[in-house]
Each structure stands twice: as structure tokens, then as C-alpha cells.
Amino acid sequence: MTQTPAFDKPKVELHVHLDGAIRPETILYYGRKRGIPLPADTAEGLKNAIGMDEPLSLPDFLAKFDSYMPAIAGSREAIRRIAYEFVEMKAKEGVVYVEVRYSPHLLASAKVEPVPWNQAEGDVTPDEVVALVSQGLQEGERDFGVKVRSILCCMRHQPNWSSEVVELCKKYQQQTVVAVDLAGDETIEGSSLFPGHVKAYEEAVKSGIHRTVHAGEAGSAEVVREAVDILKTERVGHGYEVVEDEALYDKLRQENMHFEVCPWSSYLTGAWKPGMEHVVVRFKNDQVNYSLNTDDPLIFKSTLETDYQMTKQDMGFTEEEFKRLNINAAKSCFLPEDEKGELLELLYKAYGMLSSASAGQHR
């Protein structure tokens, strides 16, 4: 018996990683084609080998990527294809607008060279990666009718990459790229303050590049504070630990800071412990500006429906709250204002709201 969708209206997704949203069949195809060993030799076996059913430690979670990314990284054909198939996947989930993120450097080569980037003969460069992903996304947008933009990730453990990432954001602004992100292990103490990251985010501010930062998922509320005060982030990826600092939480709530919440991910990464109230419930009750997102659906064996069902069944979320959070996602997305207005109008119509004048009640 087919489960009734938790929310069968158009959705907006702002936090999903391209390298964590690849079809197992595609990984298998390129593993075989390129002679790269994988942990299983069938799509179902691969899905189970890569996927998680129970919470794992952060190192064990990150090791999942190492088990399959060599089949994709460094292949021009594979990089373009996973971007195209990503849009098809989101179309099936009822998503009308999505921002997908990735590290150009990690997709460029199966083996990441020491920084500065050493281009060996035949290697795909980070610049080429962005061009290929943008091409695949644009072809997917044309074929599947989902509006899609991309976010380029700096990595906390590689501050020497960050300036190049921002330069790529500037170069490809007209070809899907809308923002920069800082991802990776936020428990690296002071990594928000690494000069390479700070300099890159200063350049992003100066150049009008939008900014988001992973903060407060595994790290403390102080990491969120650094993301806001030092990196001048406009959105926070995850951000669950912000509630540990009530003054900071109140400040960001008043400033309408957007939190990219990933409920099912937070369970499997241990960012949320079952038995405790999930921070997203507090966000809901306090009418905070947030969205629901999948994060890494390949590894979490999920779709966006997983996160909607989890919040509906286990946390009492209603259709009205789903409407509110999607409208807030649209308002907080990194599209230009005219395109953002078109997206909001699409949602208002689909949600049975007479006009954008109704938006005030969905803050």
C-alpha cells in the first residue's frame, strides 16, 4: 500500500550535497567502466553498503564517501551526468526550486592532491568541474522543469582552496552558481577563523556573492556565532546547537536568520539524540525561519518525503507549517529578487493563498 505523501504540494530545498545524492546505478556504471573497485557489485548491494540505517560516528559517516566517490571524481562524463540525474530526482520529489552544493576540488580528482592544487596530466580541474556541473544542471532544468542553482563549498580542512572557490563563484554566477558554503568537519577548533576562509568570505561579501555556512551541527553555538560575526553568513546549515546560547538564538531569530534543517540526517549523524525534543520543534514553535532538507539522501537512504514524514508523524507538523517553511525557504533562497518573486507567486498559487500579500503571515 502506497503511503500518502506528507505534503503533496510544490517544495523548495536549500541544503543537499551533489556527491551525497548520486544514483547507485550510476556509481556502479562508472566503477565498472573505469575499473574502480566498489563495496558491492549490484545497485541494491551498493545502496545498502553505502547507506546508513543507524547512527554512525562522524569519521564512519565520512568514510562512506571514500567508498564510492573514486568512481565519479575526475570523470568529465560522470560529473555532468550526476548533475543531470540530480535534477530528475528532485522533479520526482515535487521540488520546484533547489540549491545543490558541492566542492569543486573534491569532484575534480579521485585523489585530492596537496594544496596548492597540483594539476597532473589529464586531471579535471576545479574550474572544469563547475562548468560540467552547471551544464548538467541546466540540461536537467530544461528537461525536467525544476529550477536549480548551485552552491560551491569551501572545506574546513583545506583553507588554501577557499579563495579559488570564491573566484569560481564569481566566474560562474551566470551559469547556476549563486553562493559559497563552508562545509566539512566543524569540530576542527577555530576552523571558521582560518585566514584562508576569512579572506575568501570577505571577498564574497565585497563581490556580492551570497553566503551560507555549515555550523552548529557537530560544533558548538560558538561556531554559529563565528559564522555570523566573522564570515557574515546569510544562512546557517543545520545550526541545531544555536539553542545552547539563548542570547545568540534570540538575536538570530529577531534578525530572521534562515536555518537549513535536515531532520533525518541529524538522527543518522548523531546531531540529534532520539528521546530529546528535536530543535526543529522549537524552531516551529518559535516561528523561526527554517527549511526542511535531505542533506545526503544516497547515504541516508532517503528522499525529501522521509524528512516530511518524520516531522509530520513524530513531531506533529501540519500542512500549514509545511507551507510556512517552504515560503520561508523561497524568501531565503539566493535567487535574484525578480526570480524569487516568481517562485513565491508559484507557491502562493499552489498553496491556495490569494496573493503575495498573504506572505506576512508566513514569516
Automatic annotation (TrEMBL):
PROSITE patterns: A_DEAMINASE (PS00485). It is found in: Cell membrane; Cytoplasmic vesicle lumen. The keyword Protein transport does not apply. SUPFAM superfamilies: Metallo-dependent hydrolases. The keyword Iron-sulfur does not apply. Residues 10-349 form the Adenosine deaminase domain. CDD domains: ADA. Pfam families: A_deaminase (PF00962). It catalyses: 2'-deoxyadenosine + H2O + H(+) = 2'-deoxyinosine + NH4(+); adenosine + H2O + H(+) = inosine + NH4(+). It is a peripheral membrane protein. Its EC number is 3.5.4.4. This is Adenosine deaminase.
